[in-house]
Write a structure and sequence with these properties.
Helix 10 packs across helix 11. The chain has eleven helices and ten strands. By secondary structure, the chain is an alpha/beta fold. Strands 1, 2, 3, 4, 5, 6, 7, 8, 9 and 10 form a ten-stranded mixed β-sheet that branches. The N and C termini lie far apart (about 50 Å). The protein folds into two domains: about 180 residues, NAD(P)-binding Rossmann-like Domain (Rossmann fold); about 120 residues, N-(1-d-carboxylethyl)-l-norvaline Dehydrogenase, domain 2 (Orthogonal Bundle), CATH 1.10.1040.10. It binds 1,4-dihydronicotinamide adenine dinucleotide and ketopantoate. The site of ketopantoate has 13 residues, from strand 8 and helix 6. It is an enzyme of class 1 (oxidoreductase).
């Protein structure tokens, strides 16, 4: 059985960026698991992934693998598929891990980490929040639009494995930090995503749309409800600090189309149920977050075939 230091599941925008930082951090053989065979072939032909960061392009020589054909076990597994695809990767995660492996889930919103914690035992499991803007232009070309921070932590108690992963990614230039209170950061990141993602998706705009007059008004309305939801889970969030974080995040990734705007532009499903839909579940479906969730679902229905008759 072949052993690898680090594998990525889901070679999209963030998966590609993780491969980039890992390679620069000294990991040379990085299996990246793809859902489509066309992606595997395109990346082989290109000799790896091309990552554009600033005005430079870097070729990252990964090992592209189809997710149905695992090639060995991994010490670190970074899962970067969309939240609604996580359930399809459970089997793969079982196959490519041993009891010594650490799985890091990097999905936005709430639900993905919980699902993996529920389904996978005898493994180290952590969650992380990503403050990086990235865009997949084609199957092998990804643009890094800014931000470089990832905060990670395990809800199953401290593990030094996260510090090992931190060393690799820090060496590669990623500002990867480890926290003992990952849920606090997940709530803060939920605030960032609950504002930036739907506003950019509805308007098909870059992240800087949030900095406009109406972007700021809606941000406040969304955040007021998030604070109520967080309180129900025992987290007291400060509104002004949260808004500052959100507006700073929009500035740092101003030229990025958020992951949800990219979904809408590419006629793909969105993660709205894991973000604003999750908040609406706590504060009522008639809330601002409830309305935003339904508007994004309406937009999805406008392009997802055969959905028009669904109730
Ligand atoms: N793009 C961004 O700027 C940011 C994204 N995020 C979050 O990171 C996560 C990933 O987002 P993106 O990279 O933008 O998504 P993406 O859609 O670009 O990439 C996800 C990839 O996973 C692949 N995939 C789906 N099912 C699979 C399977 N069973 N096996 C292997 N691969 C599979 C898809 O084909 C796709 O290429 C999301 O939860 C998103 O919210 C967080 C921060 C920033
Ligand atoms: C940080 C941000 C807002 C970057 O665009 C993001 O998390 C996303 O696009 O999903």
């Amino acid at each position: 059985m072949q052993y690898y230091d680090l594998c990525v599941i889901g070679g999209g925008s963030i998966g590609g960026i993780i491969a980039y930082y890992s390679f620069r951090g000294g990991i040379t053989n990085i299996p990246v698991y793809y859902r489509s065979i066309e992606s595997v072939e395109a990346i082989m032909k290109n000799g790896g992934l091309t990552i554009k960061y600033g005005d430079k392009e870097y070729l990252v020589p990964i090992i592209p693998v189809h997710y149905t054909k695992p090639i060995g076990k991994c010490r670190f597994i970074i899962n970067t598929v969309k939240a609604y695809n996580v359930k399809d990767t459970i089997n793969l995660m079982h196959k490519i891990t041993s009891e010594d492996s650490l799985i890091l889930m990097l999905q936005n919103g709430f639900g993905s980490l919980e699902l993996v914690e529920e389904k996978i035992f005898n493994r180290y499991i952590a969650g992380g929040v990503v403050f990086i803007g990235a865009e997949r232009i084609n199957k092998y070309y990804i643009v890094h639009h800014g931000g470089r921070t990832i905060i990670a932590g395990s809800r199953r108690g401290f593990t030094s494995k996260l510090l090992e992963l931190m060393n690799i990614l820090n060496r590669g230039g990623c500002d990867f930090r480890v926290t003992s209170n990952i849920d606090l950061y997940r709530w803060i990141k939920l605030g960032v995503n609950a504002v930036i993602n739907p506003l950019t998706a509805i308007t098909r705009s870059k992240n800087k749309i949030v900095l406009t007059r109406y972007g700021r008004i809606l941000a406040e309305e969304i955040i007021d409800e998030l604070i109520i939801a967080a309180e129900k889970h025992g987290f007291k969030l400060d509104k002004e600090r949260l808004l500052t974080t959100i507006f700073r995040g929009s500035e740092n990734t101003s030229e990025n189309y958020s992951s949800m705007a990219q979904d809408v532009i590419n006629n793909m499903p969105t993660e709205i149920d894991y973000i604003n839909g999750f908040i609406a579940k706590h504060v009522g479906e008639k809330s601002v977050n409830g309305v935003i969730t339904r508007i994004v679902h309406l937009i999805e229905e406008s392009y997802m075939k055969n959905n028009y008759n669904k109730s």
